[in-house]
């Protein structure tokens, strides 16, 4: 995309005469044309080199002995096998992460670090990560549960099944029991329903 006359004038400011703007735009247009022709030349050369490379590979294959062709085929097959094993291990790792409840966004960053050509090793690494995450989750849940239970007020002493849930229930208790509950939990009135 070329520069417009207005852009050139804006860059040059007050000193931009029509002659200077014309010359700069001419140089700019010539540069662009020159670059486009060089790109075309390079693309043509690239096509020629690709054809030559293809011909060289065909000649090389013709000159190969049967053993060399067999070795090349074996190398290609081994590369394909490694690729297949890695892809299969990746699927197995995903399966372990998904069965553990992880979303794709959560497990994707882990895949490259656990996937190998060895399916059993990949499964072991994936399961180890899931086990660590599960144990941390269980520990966090346990800690949270303990914290919540610690902050939960003790039920009032009294008859079996009598619970104070509302302010009315609290006010219907004997005065001594109200005082005792207030001493045990000074914020009890804030926690009761209206």
- Please work out how many helical segments DSSP would assign: 8
| H and E string | HHHHHHHH
Query: Cα distance, first to last residue?
Result: 72 Å
**Helix content, binned percent:** over 70%
Q: Report the principal-axis shape.
A: flat
Please give the oligomerization state of what you see: single chain
CA gyration radius, whole angstroms: 39 Å
Unreliable spans are none
- β-strand amount: under 5%
Number of strands: 0
Would you kindly provide a written description of the structure presented here, covering whatever features stand out?
- The protein is an all-alpha fold and about 190 residues long.
- It has 3 domains: about 1-65, no CATH class; about 65-150, no CATH class; about 155-194, no CATH class.
- Helices cover about 80% and strands about 0% of the residues.
- It has helices at about 5-10, 20-65, 65-100, 105-115, 120-150, 165-170, 175-185, 190.
- The longest helix is centred in the first third of the chain and has 46 residues, at about 20-65.
